[in-house]
Amino acid sequence: MTVKIVTLLMASAMLLSLPSALAGCACSAGGTWDPYAFLNYNPSQGVSSSSDGRSVLQDDYRSDEFTNGDLLRPMPSVSSSDTVLTISGDGSDEGVYVKGALRLSRGSLVNQNGTLKSPEEIARALGSIGVDPSDRIVVYGDHLGDAALGFLALKYVGHRDVSLLDGGVERWRSMGLPVQSTPSVRAEGVYIPDKQDLVATYDYVISGEAQIVDARPFRDFGLSRIPGAIHIDSERLIDGDRIVDNASLESLFAPLQRGRPVVVYSENPDQSSLVWFALQLMGYNATIYSWSDWISHTTTVNQNAPGALGRSSSAVTGSEVTGSGSRYRKLGR
Questions:
Q1: Model confidence pLDDT, tens digit, residues 218-230
Q2: Among 18, 44, 112, 278, which residue's Cβ finds the most Cβ atoms within 10 Å?
């Protein structure tokens, strides 16, 4: 009996001392870093209330709203075990960065015609800044489209553990989270790509197998488009520096059949990447395509060329009969 009492007293003492022990440790019981300890983040600072009384901190944990919410990373959950990667223009390194962030230039991901660079080229760029395939990456950008482009490029080379930061650096700073004036630097390494089939081909686009989404502004869609394409302006997916909520995405994607693959295209890879990311977030099977590739392959459109919804191109506004073998003129500029 005495032994049991002594054992219980010892166990109680250990439990009472646990909070103070953890306060000086940056790790949790699960073996991951505690973001509050790592970032020296005080939830009582930099947290404001929204119009309906919810705290900004509470709003940051909204990833559960989405089908694949693990692709969207809440800011307060970022920790020292993450590799933070920012996608930005080719200008000066000076600016405001999330603490510990590495910088990757947008130009290292895309060609001048708006197509993605090869997986080998992207992998070399990643290796040059010290990114390793085993890193758990959180990506953000100068703009939401840049971040989505970075996310797409990482998935294209087969990076397994990558998420998109739910907001930009100014939101990060407004929450009292630490920043730095220049990007972090790592030793150069070697990144071996594992190419994924995320870029659609011309033959696939015209096969009728997938739904086609035009992510450009409506003006461009009205002037010229791939026959049968559904218009979803990428700007409608943006709420400040974040992607819109689940209900808004459900409404925007209502014309699409969830069980059928989707191809997203644009002249601007930021636009197509953003719509592609939102589709991934909502559980769609999506790939991207470039408008420039369509232009380079197509001079005429056959009357029976399948569109995104299985309709003939004769249903597309602006098509017309030509005097050549093909009856419909391509909707191109």
A1: 999 999 999 999 9
A2: 278
